[in-house]
Amino acid sequence: MKVKLMKIKVLGNGSYGVVHLGKIVTPVYNQIYAVKSINEYYSSFLRKEKEILLKFFGCPNIIQCYGGFTSFEQGQGEVYNMFLEYAPEGSLLDLMNKYGGKIPENDVKCYTQMIFEGLLDVHERVLIHFDLKPG
Ligand SMILES: Nc1ncnc2c1ncn2[C@@H]1O[C@H](COP(=O)(O)OP(=O)(O)OP(=O)(O)O)[C@@H](O)[C@H]1O
């Protein structure tokens, strides 16, 4: 089945692509996603990110990934896209910027709990990523 995605607006930019608010228009799902995209040629990191996120499918405190696909876009050629659960408040940094650097205390409690529970999910699914060099 051919899926048609409409990119509504840019949500932000990261090291591995631009993130759009996206909506599937065919078939009529009307489902909203965050869609992270990058030129197919540079997509290896984004594909890796997708593989890692898919290991946490079903974890309520980790942004869900629903897979990826390649599209052809005018002026850009082949683009790799990753479907993510849309977080209406954006990232923690977005939230800090919104409140001028000071997130209200009640929200801090709530986000801290989400972060710890998310970390617990990571440990439970036994994904340990060592990024440190010995010595
Ligand atoms: N799932 C999402 N829902 C809503 N907004 C998002 C989502 N993912 C990313 N964004 C927005 O897009 C921006 C870029 O996200 P991205 O994940 O590409 O990079 P990052 O994690 O912020 O930075 P880096 O890739 O450098 O570590 C975020 O700062 C946020 O504003």
Automatic annotation (TrEMBL):
Annotated residues for binding of ATP: 36
Organism: Gossypium hirsutum
One annotated GO molecular function: protein kinase activity
Full protein name: Mitogen-activated protein kinase kinase kinase 17
Gene Ontology biological process: signal transduction
Keywords from the named record: ATP-binding, Kinase, Nucleotide-binding, Transferase
Keyword Nucleotide-binding among UniProt keywords: yes
UniProt KW Nucleotide-binding keyword: yes
